[in-house]
Adenine phosphoribosyltransferase (Nocardia suismassiliense), 190 residues
Amino acid sequence: MSKHAAIESDELAADRTDRAAHAVEQLTRWRDDFPAPGIRFADLTPVFADAEGFRSVIDCLAATAPDADLVAGIDARGFLIGAGVAASLGTGVLAVRKAGKLPPPVLRREYQLEYGTAALEIPADGVDLRGRRILLLDDVLATGGTLAAAADLFAQAGAEVIAAAVVLELTFLNGRDQQGAYPLTSIVQV
């Protein structure tokens, strides 16, 4: 690649990120005391409902790991972005589900939320994950337990999380500190 092409690629990447960040900043709906008192909820539904906003988010997230061979989206809004990114990359998509939503056998990982505890599951059979290169996606990174639990599930299954990405990162909750060695990208940090 020539130096000019590399600069052009960097400019295109910056433009893609700027468009996605603008959509997230303009369209995110914030709600205080939801789902519990003291929690400020970032609702990305308006971002995903806007055609240009959704496309810019998908393009930005897909660029974080173009060499992934499987995209994993975390329950539930991660399913939306995961499917979009997988279609963009030409890969499959796997839903990382909340406990009790998949038939056994499953791999299960419990974790702490900012307002309680939960568990995630992936199929223990039917999808061979050994050696797969995973792009792990979620909508919001808060305390980091959900993303870290999902990454642990894939490691347990013999897969490699090569990158993780979120639409919005709440930096004051230090969720990035809970993550593994994989690169972690967030479109917007608050």
